[in-house]
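Below is a complete specimen:
___
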Amino acid sequence: MRLWQKIFLTTLALMVLSTTLVSVLLLKTSRDALWQREGQRAVTQQRYLAGILRAGVVSRRLQLGLVQLEEDEARQTAVQVLSQQATDSYLSGIVLLDSAGAALYDSMPRGLSPLPVSEEDGPDATVYALRRGLDDDEQWCLVCAMPITLESVAFRLGAAYDVTSLQRELSAQAERTVLLCLGSSFAGAALLMVLVWFLLRPLAALDRSARRVASGRYSERLDESGSDELAALARDMNAMAQAVQDRVGQLEQVAEDRRVFIGNLAHEMKTPLTSILGFADLLYLPKEVSDADRVEYARVISEEAKRLKSLSGKLLELITLGSANIELAPAPLNEVVDEVAVSLRPVMEQSGLTLTCACPDVTVDMDRELFKSLLYNLLDNGRKASERGGTLELSANAGGGTVAILVRDHGRGIPQDEIGKVTQPFYMVDKSRARKAGGAGLGLALCREITDVHRGTMDIRSALGEGTLITLTFPVSAPQEGGEIHAER
């Protein structure tokens, strides 16, 4: 069952139930009030009839000049007085019963008899009840009865009062109420149908949009106008669709990066392997190879093998960084910088470059070997981009709970539109010069991963012909009571 059907049927049932209950209560209240008023009228009429009967007996006693009438005389007088009372549209009949219950006078419609009344109820006690006559099924009467004493003789006086018109009016009123309830229910149902459709129309739009998003149209967005729950739901669904779209985009980018990574890896490994196989064949196939050619061929094979070794090492380090559980421990930054400077001194002298270092005495949480690899790769990239006689600068400054490490060269620089790509694996700005210098486009990608492992940031600024400035920012170590910091990747 659809939501709108549930809402419609539930609301309609509650509306019909409440309308019916209110109508029944109002009808019952009105009916009780009318019957109470009619009962009081019948009781008043009954007492008036009893007064006439007493007055007739007293008049008879005075006429005879007696102190008290005999019982037979009292009965005859009572019957004579009652026989003189004409019935009308309201008074349908009269009955007078003696103490034994025998009818002395009876003009009641067939099937109607007075209610039992005892003298214990009091001289003015009157009871009444609604009765239907046997001669006419449409006739309804209020049958009243009351005890009466005439000349010390106990009698019971009864009368029937026609209330057929009132009963018919009440029946018609009940029918009108039922028809009114049904009419109002149908009208309310129609109005409710329109109202439910209008209120749930945005939900139908949400459903259609959600289906389109589920079918792969992640750019689909819902209308967020309004401030009710549906608008909040639309905002949440838009946020969900945006998250799905971003995630799909990330997955597509990862798949594309992986494809490019594998292609570049195959290409980078193919070049040195081709050189190694080619020069190995030159050594193997000819019968005679001069010493100079043999030395040159061996040199090329050795350099290409070293290039493959460097490539495989960096690839392994780059891959393991993504899944390794790296343990960070506080270490003096100036000591690490000095160790890197010492290890790079022969390379810098061979390249005709000068390396200057300036570092304050601060402590950083690090994996010492990885951090040295980070600085080594950045300085080595600067060396490859610089001309002989140039200078490389490594400096650091601390403040605000962080330390910034700056690596600057004054070499060729990087074009502005390629700065965002240099940290991608195998990306090289100048492929011919990079390969000639022994690069494979993995250095800065590896530096980015190592920086992330150490919860740091890397900022690259460069201009063609002016060199490159790389800024690394790391949090300074906080005083700790033993234990190492684990950085899971």
Remarks:
- The CA atoms of residues 157 and 248 lie 99 Å apart.
- The two ends are 49 Å apart (CA to CA).
- Residues 218-321 form a domain with the Helix Hairpins fold (CATH 1.10.287.130).
